[in-house]
Amino acid sequence: MCPQPNESISIELQQLQLDADGRNERTQWLLNSPEPPSFCNELINSVSETVLPQKNNFFPSNSKQCKAGVFSFLQGLFPILSWGRNYKANMFKHDLLAGLTLASLCIPQSIGYANLANLEPQYGLFHELAIGPVAVVSLLLSAMVTNIVDPAVDPIAYTSFVFTVTFFAGTFQAAFGLLRLGFLVDFLSHAAIVGFMGGAAIIIGLQQLKSLIGISHFTNKTDVVSVLRAVFRSFHDEALSPMNFILGCSFLIFILVTRFIGKRNKKLFWLPAIAPLLSVIVATLMVYLTKADQHGVKIVKHFKGGLNPSSIHQLQFNGPHLGQVTKIGLICGLVALTEAIAVGRSFASMKGYHLDGNKEMVAMGFMNIVGSLTSCYTATGSFSRTAVNFSAGCETVVSNIVMAITVFISLELLTKLLYYTPLAILASVILSALPGLIDINEAYHIWKVDKMDFIVCIGAFSGVLFVSVEIGLLIAVGISFARIILDTIRASTEVQGRLPGTLDTFCDITQYPGATSTSGILIIRINSGSLCFANSTSIRERVMKLVTHTNGNEENTKENVHFVVLDMSNVMSVDTSGIVMLEELHRELVSQNIPLTIANPRLRVINKMKTAKCFDKLGKGWIFLTIGDAVDACLSLKIADPSSTNC
Amino acid sequence: MCPQPNESISIELQQLQLDADGRNERTQWLLNSPEPPSFCNELINSVSETVLPQKNNFFPSNSKQCKAGVFSFLQGLFPILSWGRNYKANMFKHDLLAGLTLASLCIPQSIGYANLANLEPQYGLFHELAIGPVAVVSLLLSAMVTNIVDPAVDPIAYTSFVFTVTFFAGTFQAAFGLLRLGFLVDFLSHAAIVGFMGGAAIIIGLQQLKSLIGISHFTNKTDVVSVLRAVFRSFHDEALSPMNFILGCSFLIFILVTRFIGKRNKKLFWLPAIAPLLSVIVATLMVYLTKADQHGVKIVKHFKGGLNPSSIHQLQFNGPHLGQVTKIGLICGLVALTEAIAVGRSFASMKGYHLDGNKEMVAMGFMNIVGSLTSCYTATGSFSRTAVNFSAGCETVVSNIVMAITVFISLELLTKLLYYTPLAILASVILSALPGLIDINEAYHIWKVDKMDFIVCIGAFSGVLFVSVEIGLLIAVGISFARIILDTIRASTEVQGRLPGTLDTFCDITQYPGATSTSGILIIRINSGSLCFANSTSIRERVMKLVTHTNGNEENTKENVHFVVLDMSNVMSVDTSGIVMLEELHRELVSQNIPLTIANPRLRVINKMKTAKCFDKLGKGWIFLTIGDAVDACLSLKIADPSSTNC
């Protein structure tokens, strides 16, 4: 039954022929891949993919689609259209409650933040429609605008610069949203935000020492060293009233205790939310009744009630500082967006709805532009408020409207009262919000998982702490990008082997010790997404070293390398340096009588190689779709020409 | 013969069981991959890999190895040890000829370059051991040091700054070489060098207008606009002698004609090589005999003969400009290295020998340090000289020694003569060398192959041309790195399908239109080497859009997506943002009742996911080694629970 030797060889040859046919066919697929699009087409596609959300829906084909499109566009702009039709009285009860709770948290917080931004307190309250000023943006704004003009010297110029910055921040936000550049927000990585927030929280806390101790001459700088030096100097130079400190600390303890109670007993969630307002009212009344402001307790003093006045005339679009103001606007806008979108995303994933980052950016941008025209400074989404709003049981955006009305009423009625609010209370309200910003657990998790991310985190943290807020941001973004570049530069190669029990599965022999290499064939995978100027030389050297090393080591077993298979499946892009490198590698290997085989180049790489006429130099016969095909082809060559094993 | 239905089912189930066993085994390999090395180990390995060339050879195990190691180390430092033993009289004849030819090219070129660097001409000649000053470094040096001190105002301070810069350049070069940071040279990509050289050549040519026309008041700036303005101003303000121009142009034409002849007739290679020296001698004699220097022809004038004086006392390591000088030293050192290594590589690949970039860097660094102490300014390998040396038939480095001796003799004897050398001749010598630096063909090739590389090229070119040399370099490096980052940010995803006629080969369905997708299973490959903060959000959105899109489109065929297979074989590294993204994607898909399956994560990714406890969240059963395994597992689940097709 068993075939004669001759027959067996002929069957084997037939089989080889069949295999070769399959290989050739697959190589043809590879080489005859779709033609590359022209440069212009590629550019247009790339831009339109970025700018237009859904290409197909942009030019609707019929009027019905068109109507639906317009309605969904309007819904996107005015969400009331989508929920307004189903709104019920029962829902209003929830929203009213949530709105009032929110207002009681927001009023003291916002006044505090305005203080942090070196602005008069009413500017914090003007901005309470849905979102409001947050600590980090306030700090950033005051730190950067102070470099242009000192608020103690020229408060009017300072305020107008702040509005101009807000205007630019809004313009940038809206522009980024309209151009669908939402990905810009991702430049601040998770690790960078953790570090930045931690550092900012400490800086913000230190700034509060001014009000808490009642210092008159403070520093404009934000770094730890300057602030602590200013504090110690004031102990020597100024006659400080201990009243400020006692007042601030006792209310801080009160707020923290209510928060602890609220956490233990979920039903009392409103207690920590109204505690700040309660503190402000009680403390203000105390100061007003005891006339403590005449005995060293610092109070707000400046407070102008009434609705937002227009601030169009305060915007400055000329003058020598325009460049700087634009830059600050860009930075503040991006940081505000980052915070808003981080908050939005965490609540979206909690509540299971989808958040369109670009739409959020447009909305926030227009809000800030309008804000800058009506005496509001840069605002953004705040985590603590959104959290309170949710836990207070809000149903729709009506809760925010309720809150806004409450704030407006306070602006009208409480003007007199807020005049006497002690600064120490505002400091304690802000201080009570800070522990949530410092996330040591997350920093530890980052350290465990990714040391490089931890360096980003620490870089942002210490940059903010010891230099300045914007340097901290720059360090974080810089390290993050340096890491991407470093990953590309330090591209590695790995030797692949066939997994036992599989036909065509080749894997890293370090990762899978069971993988076996085929004798005489060195399979090397390039471990980099891009084969470019930064890594092409080192990859060529690594490949040559692997070849020399293998040939040197296994001299005894007479199993030298006769073929090199270069697996390019990971290489997504190649530049001219990379192509030159491939040609050089080919030349170098051929001079050692080792043919270079290329397996699985990607579409973009094939197109580049075609234009560079690289295939002509390497030889079209040496390019295969899979490693398996390449290995089979090499083996059949070895069988056909056994002398090659001796070369 | 055919089995009963029941039997057939049982066989099928058995087969399924076998398949599942294989899958499970492979998944176990995947999950039980080697433990990640500790952070310290990884750091030490990474540093030692960069710093130590061959780890195994560093600590030799026996005395014989040790002896051989020391000898090869000495050979590396003093190559004469390797070729000196086989040197023959016949070889010296060749070397003598090559050395003399080289000297005749180098003397006029070096004096010209020293002039370009705003130094007295002898400084160019002092440095002629093996390599010498080149145009680009001379230009860079003069452009940057002129910003510190104007050579017209304080030539002594200028010269001492140049030596100090040379010292720092040498120190940086040696340090980079010793730390094996040779890859730093790759930061200037091929495209950047083409653009930079082209721009520098034009700038250098424009600088020569000063000598060629005989302008007395020129500009210190290097950009096209300033130089042309200075030239036109001089036409108005100065009484220019046409003699300079006529002299320069006629000898330029002479040099170019000899080059043309040399190219046509390979035997006359020495003609273009000695043409510059011939021109200098003839022109100098003409000026000396006709006393043309008293009739408006500008001559060198300052020339101090003799051997190199020591310049240790001229180095300045304190003073307010130290930081700037260090920076200039770094830039000049890197540019000099880039040029030298580019030259070295092209000749190495031509002649088929291997070039160790790090060793070259150490050698060049020490040479420049010694040079800075002996009145030499930053030197590097020059393409034109190396080419002449090779075509003159040099055998060993002896040809360079011959050249050096010739130069020293000229320094002693020709002092008087060189005093009368007209500046216009030096300009024409430099101008004749420039066309080789402008490589329009290569620029066109870059445009054809890679548009982004072309932008790098044009950026470097126009930066050098319109702003300054260092800005041109910065632009080129900046764009090159921005491109790496952009590639990572614009990471894409592609839908994979099974190739017909293969068992386990899945490919991009755009690249291979023949690939067929499995119904109900969406296979998505992440097209990026790194899954990080910069692209994780966009990848998540792309995956979700693909799922929604497929579900939306194929509603008619009732073939909704039931499983998503995420092929991670391209992802070489992941950071905390990437891991958070995977968890979010999992949560989002599960909420739509679609399990997320991960195929072929790499070793580094697996280790990160293990530390982040990501497997616990995703479920270990949903991770497979190959796409094929993942698809089979999904299919068997679908068979086992047909109701899932209706979910």
Automatic annotation (TrEMBL), chains A, B:
Domain STAS: 528-634
UniProt-listed CDD domains: STAS_SulP_like_sulfate_transporter
Domain of life: Eukaryota
Membrane topology summary: Multi-pass membrane protein
Keyword RNA-binding attributed: no
Principal localisation: membrane
Short name of any one Pfam family annotated for the protein: STAS
Any Gene Ontology CC annotation: membrane
Spans traversing the lipid bilayer: 96-117, 129-149, 155-176, 183-206, 243-261, 268-289, 328-348, 386-410, 417-438, 458-482
GO biological process entries: transmembrane transport
NCBIfam families: sulP
Protein name: STAS domain-containing protein
Organism (species): Solanum pinnatisectum (tansyleaf nightshade)
Phylogenetic placement of the source organism: Eukaryota, Viridiplantae, Streptophyta, Embryophyta, Tracheophyta
